[in-house]
Amino acid sequence: MNTQNQSNTRLLLPEFEYVKPKTKTEALQLLDQYRDKDTRILAGGTDLITKMKTGALSASRLIHVRDIKELSGARQIDSALHIGAVTTLADLERLPEVKSVYSALYEALRSMAAPAVRNMATIGGNLCNGSPAADTAPALMVLGTVCTLSSLTGERRMKLSEFFVAPGRTALLPGEMLTELAVEGVRPGSGSCFLKIGRVSADIAKVNIAVYLERDGDRITDCRLAAGSVGPTPLLLDSVASLLKGSRISQQMLSEAGRMVEDAISPITDARSTQEYRKAISCILAEEAIKAAWVRSGGEVPR
Amino acid sequence: MMEGYAIELTVNGRRVCAEVRADETLLEFLRTQLRIIDAKLGCGKGDCGTCTVLLDGRPVKSCIVLAASADGKDVKTLSGMQEEPLIKALQESFVTHGAVQCGFCTPGMILTAASYLREHENPSRDDIRRALSGNLCRCTGYKKIVDATEAVAKRNT
Ligand SMILES: Cc1cc2nc3c(=O)[nH]c(=O)nc-3n(C[C@H](O)[C@H](O)[C@H](O)COP(=O)(O)OP(=O)(O)OC[C@H]3O[C@@H](n4cnc5c(N)ncnc54)[C@H](O)[C@@H]3O)c2cc1C
Ligand code: FES
Ligand code: FES
Prior knowledge:
The structure holds two protein chains of two kinds. By secondary structure, chain A is α+β, with helices and mostly antiparallel strands.
């Protein structure tokens, strides 16, 4: 056998054990059993395996959950769309209701990676990674998403905005996994939008912004904004939302909202962009996103 | 504690039973155990697309898929799809448009283009560029690759 060829394609991975539970209960049992060890959940692996290969992360055991059927797929329960944590980005993007109802989520999915990566990557993996740049995070936050964290002893639910704790850290406790996301139904007369700036298309965001708003005539009656890559976690921009709530849309209003975004965020300079650029571009993205959501809600282009 | 994992899968239409290491990628398994070498190792971390294969019919980057996780699945590489008219058309078009230079990116490029064209009618050049955005080419500058793919898309519709 050609050994050169072999070393050519070998992983730079340390040794680990691989386990593949068949059901959610089995997965939770394994998580519970190994909670004190260096055990990690493997979903699509697009973050985890890449990080393990580059040495950024290590694990002694991987619990593969990507093929657990009860954790995959989406269904409508009452007005909310319930999405299993291991649903792939590609499968979500193909759902007619995501495209027609949840514009911000659809645009976030479309902006991510290449199709081959989206075929592997899961929505749960994107969130559990805890990256401030995770593209689905701001979109799901403004659409009003509640996540379900499950362990052998039970379940707890929290708003997605409370799920992110620090860079690379989420509210998940040892023995817990993310199992489901419930996205609120949108109101008639509402609109949403996601915008992102990367170095090239389908790249990790320098800045991403999502907006959801409800309209009555020429007024914004309710509104949520969130931004990513501009702070330690994806941020809900409540101060900007309160400014917009109840106000009449105008170009002046949009400019003021943009300025407020700049104050509400705390970006850093890193490999992808600078603090200054992130601040400057965030204002513009916010204005554009609010405008687009407004037009989608049926409103006229503000002057 | 390194033990082997027994897997059973279909590769290019053939039933395969094998033993893999936990840390063995699908790409490594295909190349070293099965000697299927049209899928290639470029970056090894999901960026370049030279390792693209179909997993249950959908393109994935096999350098970041664990072989153990392909247990029970259907894997296809370009060399197992030579008889498909769309693949043949793309291969010919790549040749006539001069879209192949060193050829390292070509299998992944053609497989990705074929998967896209199968699901999308009448794509624009921009659509094609987006579809191929996960496949890097260090030689051609992409224009001829897009030309070659566009020509096949036009003939198909
Ligand atoms: C080439 C490339 C381009 C990319 N582009 C983008 C991009 O544009 N935007 C973007 O946001 N991301 C991007 N990513 C990052 C990545 O693809 C996404 O974050 C993806 O959604 C991760 O999902 P996964 O299923 O692959 O996660 P995995 O790699 O399997 O897991 C990620 C982390 O989450 C944990 N985890 C996974 N699922 C669960 C669960 N259910 N419960 C608890 N913990 C869990 C894992 O233990 C691990 O720590 C890119 C990655 C690559 C390789
Ligand atoms: S080798 Fe797999 S994406 Fe580059
Ligand atoms: S032809 Fe050489 S990398 Fe594409």
